[in-house]
Amino acid sequence: MDATTPRIAIIGAGPGGLICARVLQRHDVSVTVYDLDASPAARDQGGTLDMHPDTGQCALRAADLLDEFLALARPEGQQMRMVGSDGRIVFDGIPPEADTTAGNPEIDRVQLRDLLLDSLEPGTVRWNHKLTRVEPIAEGIHRLHFADGTTTDADLVIGADGAWSRVRRLLTDATPLYTGVTFIETGLNDADTRHPRLAALTAAGTMMALHNQQGFVAQRNSDGHIRVYVAMRTDENWHQQAGLDLADTTAVRCALLDRFTGWSDHLLGFITDTDTGYVNRPLYALPVPHTWTHTPGLTLLGDAAHLMSPFSGMGANLAMLDGADLARALIDDTTIDQAVIAYEKTLLPRSIEAAEGAAGAIADAFSPDGAARVLAHMTQRH
How far is it, in rounded angstroms, from Cα 141 to Cα 156? Predict the structure, then answer.
């Protein structure tokens, strides 16, 4: 960029936004991140992520954080297990033990976020700043309006604000659509001690069981926690149609057990033995392809740009690569606008390809023969 000091605002303190800020600061470019959460600990950050060498790990390398990541990562978490509805293990993909940098080692989302936050200069992230509106005030300059009544002007607004991005509204009319699949999230604490049978079934990484367009995904986290998703192809408002109060843990448990009639008792334990209650999580994705016309002073990264189903395994990885690539373009190009144009020429084609793959993956998994399709994919991959 030129010698002037640009005002760069990143909306959202997720992995993509934080990577972007970190790479910019490593090259002495000033940046501010605004996030609606009251603090880093305001809410659960979600489960575990597998960091791919050509995307997430590449971004961490650009941020000079790869060694710190590898110290936290769990290579054993790459294990992928497929289980039949009868509880029988039909596939077990165990990662090689030799090279911890090979493949896609796992890390908890909260550990990754803490790593990124700790790498930034103090005060970079402004917590409790919920963006309510983005107002164009001049060519390439926008005014950010926050819920507390404050405003700030920026020469570049980077929308890293997730699925329901407010920044995206200035670039495209696209909104996320329901994929037809809902996850009911629950979890097991101190699983190896308190739930040894379910812990053994989950093994060291991720266990998946699919049948009749529904199933279970159990995922190892650190500190002995197993995060569980009870997955169903169902109407978005399935609980309302059933007259179900999602806050009524007993009623939700009974409804889920009814849906999974005939499944092995070993797997039904992921419903009955929960330590954390149930959270309804319908899955959404942006239309494919999702593109926008370049607008000076604005751009997107991560879910704001390419929200896709988690069955791609690419969402956070791409968000981080987006952040690193955008930062690199801003460092290398003469003007902000030239940098954003170059970034978007790279971002859009690869995000379309990834989103198409993700749409296919979730359609396959929750098709009538989903178990066979996923098993074939796992076998080929390993």
Answer: 7
Question: Could you give phi then psi for residue 235, rounded to 5 degrees?
Answer: -65, 145
**Tens digits of residue pLDDT in 25-75:** 999 999 999 999 999 988 877 788 889 999 999 999 999 999 999 999 888
Looking up residue 268, the CATH number of its domain turns out to be 3.30.9.30
Q: For residue range 188-213, list pLDDT tens digits in order.
A: 999 999 999 999 999 999 999 999 99
Supply 251's token pair. 């009623």
Inside any domain, residue 48: yes
Q: What is the dihedral of CA 137, 139, 140, 144, to 10 degrees?
A: 0
From the list 380, 77, 375, the residue with the least C-alpha distance to 203 is 77
Residue 91 falls inside a structural domain? no
Beta pairing partners, 48: 108
How far apart CA 241 and CA 253 sit, in angstroms, is 16
Contacts 24+ apart (CB under 8 A), 365-371: 365/210, 365/215, 365/311, 366/180, 366/181, 366/210, 366/213, 366/214, 366/231, 366/233, 367/213, 368/212, 368/213, 370/210, 370/211, 370/213, 370/215, 371/82, 371/84, 371/85, 371/209, 371/210, 371/211, 371/215
Domain boundary among 259, 285, 311: 285
Tokens of 130: 């919920």
Parent domain of 63 = 8-74+107-175+286-363
Structure tokens given for 255: 């409804």
Nearest of 370, 325, 379 to residue 23 by alpha carbon: 325
φ, ψ for residue 276 (rounded to 5)?
-125, 5
Q: Is 258 within 8 Å of 244 (Cβ atoms)?
A: no
Radius of gyration of the chain (CA): 21
